[in-house]
Design brief:
about 220 residues; Rossmann fold; four-stranded parallel β-sheet
Length: about 220
């Protein structure tokens, strides 16, 4: 069909409108990463992961950042006639812990090892001296020669904590998983060990009192 009739039969053009919005053209934001397992129980601001030195299968310890929790948790009080810090070789961590304890508490202290080394590590002595502590007269000792039935014992070493010797003698003890600085033997490793111990002793010392006395 041609002519005027054909022109009249053509449909009118359709004018399409759109409802424009920024959200339709803005880039889609990326999806958030999935949460880490047990992330609610392990907030990054209050804890760090540390490989266990006493687990042959490569276990991991969760280390609480004491300073982050200091103002949120009450510290229970307990009495003890003496504090004894134990590690495997009694050459570094346990001696540093005992020296720090003397600075913070009047409760007597000692240290011992499950497999004591012939001497205190020279870098432990140097690290202590750098921070105003003295290990000049420190000697290594076996737990059999040191422990008493009423001691409050803190194992500062994964291997010592898991040893049969200490487990049989002191079933009720505290455990601090402090990395062994003698493995690398660097000044930084010994300084880090001292700092880890200082954080814990700052928290524990006010909570331990001698029997029948006060540590104020």
């Amino acid at each position: 069909m041609t002519g005027p009739a054909a022109r009249r039969a053509r449909p009118s053009p359709v004018v399409r409108t759109s409802s424009w919005s920024w959200s339709a053209y803005a880039p889609t934001p990326p999806s958030p990463p999935p949460p880490e397992p047990n992330s609610v129980l392990r907030p990054r601001s209050t804890s760090t992961r540390t490989a266990s030195q006493g687990e042959p299968r490569g276990g991991t310890y969760l280390r609480l950042r004491v300073q982050a929790l200091a103002d949120t948790m009450p510290t229970p009080l307990r009495t003890a006639p003496r504090m004894v810090f134990v590690c495997t070789h009694n050459s570094a961590r346990s001696h540093l812990a005992a020296a720090l304890w003397k600075r913070h508490s009047t409760v007597p202290t000692a240290s011992a090892g499950t497999q004591p080394a012939p001497r205190v590590h020279p870098r432990a002595v140097a690290t202590a001296r750098k921070h105003g502590l003295s290990l000049a007269a420190a000697r290594t000792s076996h737990i059999d020669e040191t422990l008493r039935p009423d001691d409050l014992v803190v194992a500062v070493c994964d291997n010592a904590h898991g040893s049969i010797q200490l487990g049989h003698r002191v079933p009720d003890r505290l455990q601090w998983s402090v990395p062994d600085p003698t493995r690398t033997g660097t000044d930084d490793a010994f300084a880090d060990a001292l700092n880890h111990l200082a954080d814990r002793i700052d928290r524990l010392a006010p909570a331990v009192r001698p029997p029948g006395g006060s540590d104020d």
